[in-house]
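It is worth pausing here to work through a concrete case rather than discussing structure prediction in the abstract. The textbook approach is simple: state the sequence, then state the predicted structure, then interpret. We follow exactly that order.
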Amino acid sequence: MISFAFNIEFKSLMDSATFMSFIDRVGKFQLEMQHHFLYGPMAISMPWMRFLEESYHLAAGETLMKAIAVAATLDGGNFGIEDLQQTLNMWYPRGLEMFGSELGGDLVRGVFKTLKNAEAQAIYIEEVQGKVKDANLAIIQAKAHSNREEAQAVLRRIQELHETVQGLSQEDLLFLPDRRFFRIRGLAEYGDFRTPGSDAAGVGFVYLPYDVHGNLLKDNGNLVDRDDYAEYLKTVLPNRYLTSRHWTFVKDEFLFNPKWGIPERAQ
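Step two, the predicted structure:
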C-alpha cells in the first residue's frame, strides 16, 4: 500500500509540506515499531533512521505547512486555506492506508512490530490531529497577534462554540478529514454494506461514498452512484490531482472497476 502514496506526483509546494508532515510520519511509526524486530541488525538500525532522518523530514514539513497556512491567512502567499485543505484531503487517506488493513497486524505484533495496524494508526491519527491544530494556532496567532495560550482559547471558541473570533471562523481553519473518506481498503465499520459475495460486512469493499466529515452520501436513501461520488471528490480534492496518473489509476482500478460490483446490504 506504500505505492499508493509514493505514486502520487508532487505538483505543488503544498504536496511537499503535507508529504513530509503526514506521509513521512508513517515512516517514523514503522521505524519505531520495528525496533523490536527479531533480526538484530535491522532492529538496531531503526532508532538511528527514525531520529536522524525522519525527524528532519517531519520538522521541515510541519514548519512549511504552518508557513503556508499563515501566508494564506494574511494574503501573503500563492495559496489559500482551501487549497491547503484540499491537499490534506488528498494525502491523509493514503497515509492511513500505509499502516495496512485496520483489521490486521495480529500475526506480526511482537515479531516484526510492537503494535497491531489499528493500534498504530490510532496513535498516528492523534499525532496528525495535533499537527493540524498547530497550524490552526499559527493562523490565529498571526491573525489576532496573540500568543499561543491566547490562540488556544480562541480556537476553542471557534471549534466548540462555532463563534467568529478576530474575523476567523471554522471555514478559515484547517481540519483533518474523517478516516473513512476516500479510502481504498474496506473497513469494519462500513458495517451495513459488503462486497457482493463477501461473508463479512464491510471488509474488502472500496470507496464507499463518505464525505470529508464522515457522512455517507445518499440519494433517496440509497448510496449515491459512483459518477456522483466522483463529482463530489472533484470539489474536495486539488485540481492538479484530478489530472494525475494516480487519479486515473484510482478510477480505472477501484472507483469504476466493475469487479467490485454494487455494495450489498449485509443480512
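Step three, interpretation. The radius of gyration is 20 Å. The CA atoms of residues 23 and 95 lie 5 Å apart.
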